[in-house]
Amino acid sequence: MALINENYLKLPGSYLFSEIARRVNQFKQENPDADIIRLGIGDVTRPLTPAVIQAMHDAVDEMGRAESFRGYGPEQGYDFLIQKIIDNDFTSRGIQVDVDEVFVSDGSKPDTANFQEIFGLNNIIAVTDPVYPVYVDSNVMAGRTGRFNEKGQFDNIVYLPCTEANGMKPELPKTRVDMLYLCFPNNPTGMTLTRDELKQWVDYARENKSIILYDAAYEAFIQEADIPRSIYEIEGAREVAVEFRSFSKTAGFTGTRCAYTVVPKEVMAYDQDGNAHSLNKFWLRRQTTKFNGVSYPVQVAAATIYSEAGQKEIRDNINYYMENAKMIREGLISFGYKVFGGVNAPYIWLKTPDNLGSWEFFDKLLKQANVVGTPGAGFGASGEGYFRLTAFGTRENTARALERIRTKM
Amino acid sequence: MALINENYLKLPGSYLFSEIARRVNQFKQENPDADIIRLGIGDVTRPLTPAVIQAMHDAVDEMGRAESFRGYGPEQGYDFLIQKIIDNDFTSRGIQVDVDEVFVSDGSKPDTANFQEIFGLNNIIAVTDPVYPVYVDSNVMAGRTGRFNEKGQFDNIVYLPCTEANGMKPELPKTRVDMLYLCFPNNPTGMTLTRDELKQWVDYARENKSIILYDAAYEAFIQEADIPRSIYEIEGAREVAVEFRSFSKTAGFTGTRCAYTVVPKEVMAYDQDGNAHSLNKFWLRRQTTKFNGVSYPVQVAAATIYSEAGQKEIRDNINYYMENAKMIREGLISFGYKVFGGVNAPYIWLKTPDNLGSWEFFDKLLKQANVVGTPGAGFGASGEGYFRLTAFGTRENTARALERIRTKM
């Protein structure tokens, strides 16, 4: 008799974005003429840029000719892309990364979800609260988190609250933690850490032989000079940190699918006898066994982002979104809202007025302003009473949504 | 202190295809002028077909315009592709499959490797011997297989030998088995099961509440009428079988990346209390959490395979490869080799002459004929003394390789 993985039964029933979709659909059925503006799910609206489109066309044509056709590529990605990543994202900032330390993949969501597989099940994980749900759910499925308790949390996860009191910056854990998920610029709060702040985490990990799983999917949105774009800007991070990067938001690849993960060869985890093992080797084995590489035309497209034309085009798109972020942030402040984020990130995290619950505010915003956002409570217990808006809409919709918030809320 | 997943330490050191690459590279260094022909790794050589290329171009252009740009798609694939899959691969053969039972993915290797995640760790798995290594390795990593023993096998796996005596067709397991990996047409032996033979496996699974993980990646190569193309042609299979299908070999997508997996809603696995749970729901949760969908232009390309032009083009390619298979099979037989497969599959499984070991034959073939194949021992203990050749080369290279085998071996 085949047994099921019972860890899945611990997952809370409804996924955040499914519940949002359900409520929006119900509202649309009851109000078929409502003109709904979505600033909820973090999906981009700007199309792929001309240089990327041209490169994909060329790569597709290569695939149509026997002499240039590409079959199976290396699971970890083609060198032509990896070298461009290293030159542009790391070497240019004085960071050393080797070719065999970069793993190209089809997304940071898969990578952040899959990466826990190479760790033992007895590790204690820590996550910020609020947090991107995938870090938690993937560990629940693996059986690393224990029971879902009355507080809406898992018994064996260490939650690091991000609150108004600490300015949405988590404090170091007070109990033992082996795997630390950090995401900066943060989804959902839009907040960042300075170099000095991030250094405390690297130092903690070095002292405790912990691993930092650093999600830097939004680094391209950083505007301020003292905010690190890579955790490897911090001394010693190569010993303790894995970094996840994505082309999804940087270059509009949410539907095109390409990302990469950096696993320095120095990062070690340990067996029961205390022997050190390089995570790089384990991840290589995991990827070569359970993954088959990214589509060739997609890798060519990703490499083109690093051309002169590509860099200019994606910079224009990022500026477009960050102008939206500024509008939302400054608009909400002028309407009297308390807000976080939106300066170095495409997310704005607002405190709901009048102590409304996150879902109460969601319903009110939907009904009164016909605007969809994301309830903070969906990201964790400390997200209750907060709400996320994204800067990925069109300029026009962003302006219209703000006007409605001003006049109808 | 972060602990490593120690199950990885049980994996035998060198992966089959890495060892082949190592030996070929060494030979090339010592013989830089040798004209090596590769009939080893199962990668295709025919380019993407014109209809597929045109569809990808159109989809890329869509991605370049704001009004038709696609961001995040459904993790399980777009309905436009799923509906074409159902209509052409199932409904046309009288098989009922629902839209929410098809999960589009980036490959059958990932799917067959990942699918075990939704099962409990105490299940006993069975694999044929020889076998595609990914089924075994992914279960080793998860911790379902026990120790790697002196026989070169894992203690807790039930191996089902495919030998000359049983005509490369496995016999039903004699001890309890919960998860059964079957691949037909088989990689590496190239053999198939008839409907009656496959029915025994479905009946076994129904009696024992086991699950059959049925890898049908090579179904498009089936030529004979009494060979089932889908396990769902067998009565009751919808209760016990998951089927993996791929566009890799069917349409030359090894570098383009698209596949799909069928999980009927009736297939159940059980919790410790004996409650039934639908695998379909668990796989949906797994995919929505740990996967982010296939690149949009790739899904459009895959859908085009089902157009009239697409069907004709891929049929021509399959015929090309199957003509190679026939040449290899008939050539080897005429040279006095004992061979299996090559009739309904692009693989030819030959018995090594003079009781040579698989790797001895590999080295001899490389040195004397400058032809690369795959040692059967790399697929399991029962593969020792056998050798795999593939029909995915060009016609010219296939003919030249055969001529060399005739004259130099």
Automatic annotation (TrEMBL), chains A, B:
Name of the top EC class for this enzyme: transferase
EC number(s) reported in the record: 2.6.1.83
HAMAP family, sorted: DapL_aminotrans_1
Family, per entry: Belongs to the class-I pyridoxal-phosphate-dependent aminotransferase family. LL-diaminopimelate aminotransferase subfamily.
Residues making up the signal peptide according to the UniProt record: none
UniProt xrefs under Pfam families: Aminotran_1_2 (PF00155)
GO biological process per UniProt: lysine biosynthetic process via diaminopimelate, diaminopimelate-aminotransferase pathway
Assembly, per entry: Homodimer.
Keyword Transferase: yes
Domain Aminotransferase class I/classII large: 35-405
Involved pathway(s): Amino-acid biosynthesis; L-lysine biosynthesis via DAP pathway; LL-2,6-diaminopimelate from (S)-tetrahydrodipicolinate (aminotransferase route): step 1/1
Native source organism of the sequence: Heliophilum fasciatum
N6-(pyridoxal phosphate)lysine: residues bearing it: K249
A GO term for molecular function: L,L-diaminopimelate aminotransferase activity
Described purpose of this protein according to its UniProt entry: Involved in the synthesis of meso-diaminopimelate (m-DAP or DL-DAP), required for both lysine and peptidoglycan biosynthesis. Catalyzes the direct conversion of tetrahydrodipicolinate to LL-diaminopimelate.
Domain of life: Bacteria
This protein's name: LL-diaminopimelate aminotransferase
Keywords per UniProt: Aminotransferase, Pyridoxal phosphate, Transferase
InterPro entries membership: Aminotransferase_I/II_large (IPR004839), DapL/ALD1 (IPR019942), PyrdxlP-dep_Trfase (IPR015424), PyrdxlP-dep_Trfase_major (IPR015421), PyrdxlP-dep_Trfase_small (IPR015422)
Cofactor: pyridoxal 5'-phosphate
Gene3D superfamilies in UniProt: Aspartate Aminotransferase, domain 1, Type I PLP-dependent aspartate aminotransferase-like (Major domain)
Residues that coordinate or bind pyridoxal 5'-phosphate: Y72, S108, K109, Y132, N187, Y218, S246, F247, S248, R257, N292
Catalytic function, reaction form: (2S,6S)-2,6-diaminopimelate + 2-oxoglutarate = (S)-2,3,4,5-tetrahydrodipicolinate + L-glutamate + H2O + H(+)
UniProt-annotated binding residues for substrate: Y15, G42, K109, Y132, N187, N292, R388
